[in-house]
Amino acid sequence: LFRSQRLQEEGVSEAAIQDSEQIMRNEFAALQNQIVLLKQKQWRLIETLRQLETEKVDLENTVVDESQRQSRDQGDTSRLKQDKSSEASPSGSDDDNFRLDAVEEDTDDDENTFFDTRDFLSSSSFKSDRSDLRISSFSSDDDDHHATESKGDIDPSIRSVGGNFPYVKRRKKLPDPKEKEKGVSLWSLIKDNIGKDLTKVCLPVYFNEPISSLQKCFEDLEYSYLLDRAHQWGKQGNSLMRILNVAAFAVSGYASTEGRTCKPFNPLLGETYEADYPDKGLRFFSEKVSHHPMVVACHCEGTGWRFWGDSNLKSKFWGRSIQLDPVGTLTLEFDDGEVF
Known about the structure:
Layout: H1 2-9, H2 14-86, H3 92-111, H4 156-159, H5 186-190, E1 208-212, H6 213-218, H7 225-235, H8 239-252, E2 263-265, E3 272-277, E4 282-290, E5 295-301, E6 305-317, E7 322-334
Parallel strand pairs: 1-2
Antiparallel strand pairs: 3-4, 4-5, 5-6, 6-7
């Protein structure tokens, strides 16, 4: 008020004084808004830092627990070796028992000879009767996927589809490793790779599964009998059951993902993988067709259907989670021309 009176005494008009005051108010309001925004950014930054600190502590605790577990395992292994070395040399009768055990082990190995370890197909490798099949130590609980279906759930003509091929005994998992890998600090490997593409990160060999990405593509065809049934339902004119079986096949690949925390090996450019399963009526072929980006193409022929496509799996590591983005198109075509 004092300043406005002084300006009026000096001949400044009232309108000019009001305009000047309004300009000053606007400037102060803009400055106040900027201060509020800066305080909000500071608060969000503090919250983000607290969250990152919490995640870091959780990761460090996980690494410590893993290191302690590995130390206990190594201690148990060393004690076991000491116990074995302290034992006396075997006597003559022990030698006889050892030879007998070796003969029995050889016999078991012969009985556990699997179809995929043979060099050729022979009539003895096929068995149409499953009742006299001796279950291998490598088999899993889902040896016969048809056993869980009750007879009243499905048409008998459809239930036999996919199961009328000669039965072949296959292994369900690889033998356990002979040696344990040396422990490595998990935090030292992942702390510099947060936000990076896992396909471009160098990791120790034991972080990989003993298969390549080409072979892993064929795992999606484990339940190919669902497509055989979808083909048969389509021949009978039942489009709904065909779609249901195709949908079940589309998600069946997740059945083998539980507990598998390792990634497959990255194949070489131009590397191929072929699978010929006459007991399932399948012929499969996959190839790595691009290196940057890594693209795998595959083609499969079954009973009344064909399956082909390409896949580019992008993966990123975010400290406590892994982001997987599958990019590609998979196409399924039946002999009657219907395409999914």
